Amino acid sequence: MKLDGVLKGSYQRYIAADFLSTVFFDKRIALVVDGLNDSCIRAVREKLLDRYGDVDIVCEFSDGSEKQTRVSALDVGCDADTIVIDGCKVTECKRFDFSDFVQIMKRLRADDGCEWDRAQTHDSIRINLIEEAYELVEAIDCKDAEMMKEECGDVLMQAVFHTEIAQNEGEFGYCDMLTNLCRKLIDRHTHIFGENHASNPEEALKFWTEAKKKEKKYKSNSDAMDRVPKNLPALLYAEKVQKIAKKAGFDWQTPDGAIDKLNEEIEELKSADGAHRTEEAGDLLFAAVNAVRLYGVETEMALHEASLKFLRRFEGVERLAAETGKEMKDYTLEELDVFWNKVKADEQKG
Length: 350
What we know:
Layout: E1 11-15, H1 16-21, E2 30-34, H2 41-51, E3 56-61, E4 66-70, E5 80-85, H3 98-109, H4 115-119, H5 126-141, H6 145-168, H7 174-188, H8 190-193, H9 201-216, H10 221-226, H11 234-247, H12 255-271, H13 277-294, H14 299-323, H15 333-349
Parallel strand pairs: 1-2
Antiparallel strand pairs: 2-5, 3-4, 3-5
Helix pairs in contact: 3-6, 5-6, 11-13, 12-13, 14-15
């Protein structure tokens, strides 16, 4: 083809149909796509815009002529048989994919890379993943798509950072990590990739749980319970432990029994001496998680929302106190409670 004069060095070549089904390709070297026609050209254009942005391309036509244009110009009736996009440096990319991300991380961790990134270990950045995960949860709660986009990237960065460290240390590499992930997704979705059939989300979860139990080789329910990460937030840890107990049949059938137990634990805390107060307080909180869980409420999020509500109303009380020229400490609790009820009533009206 005449485009040989356009290409510089190595290039990758695809038939249009194969290109559309290809997930990753190397944007560092030139891309050649052959076999364009009206039935696929718009799909090719959209994929190129997604991966490269609206960059310069060279088209070759059936009469052997060539023309430089832009990706956005590709459309039905353009008659191009072949297109070429030249390779670009990662710093010149307008759009990025996972392979670009990995290349950037490798550059940062290289011998002549960023001193801070090179100095990090699994232990030194472990807390970052927890922080980023909570920031993503906040974005989800706020229903903020732009914030979610950023925070999903930050969570992904932590996973890639740990994988890059592991590869440098000879522990595992990207293909090892992705192989484990893909194998798990295939093996646990037996109703998709196996012989089981699920007609609703509950059945799908049941098959997932059975496959996970087989994969993890749990010896007992206690073994499964013991493998719940113990550094989870306390409410979430208690909830996960209780859910395993439920699968074993050790659970209240309705919230009523859990509420009775909660009331029992309140009385035990009230009568506990100093040596047993912490233990009884823990029993009370565990019973509260049980009751809330049986009402179908996520305990971690419920407590978080309650804390935010308290903060909001406390600010209102403080504001009302300040409007009288006094501080909160100058009022009795009964007087502050009047302010609290006013703030609460105003909030419920609004």
